[in-house]
């Protein structure tokens, strides 16, 4: 028999002798578990009826023929315990004496029939989908695949079962003690209209922070350090949006190139904080450390939003590793393609979780509730959210998953943000999500980028985005804060690179610069990359001020990307997903440079100005009609000549615009029902290269001028000469 035949000898069989390792054969049913309980799912440490302590294990595996619970001691030796009880498709048992910190996994026996989607393989150690903590690395090795990866007949390779043991190469779940006391935690509960988001990476934010102790850098504890929290407080942001902190692993192709999945959009455990971000350990300590981080941020008035990836898993396509879901119930978790052997891929990552199935919805909602109720988080940003709403005929906004979230008494009260697209047909759904949901608004991003680089023929689109994108979000009773406005995000150029590069420079990723978008809408202002030309540097810095000013004074919810306020650069890499190094980490020494420090100060000034004035963060869309005691419109668009825009003005070519926000014509009321009154503001924008004179409708006092490094002279003026490519904010005396 050839080596290929030996590897494939089990193909199509329902049962094979379990693969052995460590030189011994653990005996199934050694120390048979007590019956235990079928709920809750996962491993729960508790006191048993006889007063002892142990752990209850429960695994939903509807098509399994047998399930072995596998425990691992400190030397990595495995013992197997057959779960004999099954209730409502859940296999369960209680083991006395199993304490927190114990590592475990499952081996699931059942049919191997890839033609119908059945891919059980007990040679593969499987992670508990409900694991609260995960220990150990995933090592790219062919034995982790359920099928023979190098089978010579490639068209049937996925049907040939690989019976080698995967346990040495895969992470293990960890039993966690859930006991915790949240008596001292106070959630900020910031209203949507007052929210300012700050997207950051837990590791990258503090890896180079000089005031964070070296042993805490890149960890949850590092983010909780007063030096890190202090920067967020000085900026005035109200919430951090953390790139994925669910436990994730790096794909085989990255490991082969000596790289890692730095961003973390390759989730393996939906209940487990990523162990690599813990300073205290990975045997359950990461759970407590994460909770303490949340407490520290809450104490500073900052909410915690998680970027979550429920659309696909780290198991990838059918020839990817078998780590959890595929071996437990492949057809029950993943959306099949027409052949049923493969997967429908609406994510570009090889698989798509099938949210048409009740158990998948339960997995996701159980995970969300856990992070809110037990880990203390305040909301979620859903990666490729359109994939979660796919029914039988495309994306459906009445999908059971969306319905389950909207009616849940806990989840319906937290912040929900959709990345409103996926890569499948009909997947672009900006403006389509139902009430309660905010959305990343890429229309806003593209319009603002185009305006300031001079690529817009007129100002119509810009006006719509500045005023809250009512064309997208006014339907269905939604509010301006449904629009999460951003100019940059983790995916793409940093703000500094946006004004420094015409082209992406992703060579370090090892993909011959093919990865990352080519639609950057960027402008290098005359020199590709860093420049010593004073004129180029000055113009770039002014453009950064323009972009930040526009973002933070627009109606909707602004999202800043960590480091943009201090000129962080990735050297032109617009897809740094695999760069766990100085390319991605924040360079805090930038704040020692007066120019970058002034940019951070301007950002903080704009955030605090927004917080202080409700007219800059209104909860309702503008009416444009006269209101208030002085008969002013709540929102008025003006030409540089100081008169209100006409239809002809809107359709005429132009790169200059003025908008007046009236604090005396607001439609909002305070908590006692009294009409709100605020100052009035006038924002002048000039994206043309030449200076432009603006006549003001009444005397105003300048508050900021992006052409200046500092504050403008606080003298009352009736007209303003705007430098080319600059913005000025004024307030009525």
TrEMBL record:
GO terms for biological process: glycogen catabolic process. This is Glycogen operon protein. Residues 199-610 form the Glycosyl hydrolase family 13 catalytic domain. It comes from Kitasatospora cineracea. GO terms for molecular function: amylo-alpha-1,6-glucosidase activity. Residues 1-47, 504-532 are annotated as: Disordered. Residues 504-522 have a biased composition (Basic and acidic residues). Belongs to the glycosyl hydrolase 13 family. Keywords: Glycosidase, Hydrolase. It holds the Pfam family CBM_48. Signal peptide: none annotated.
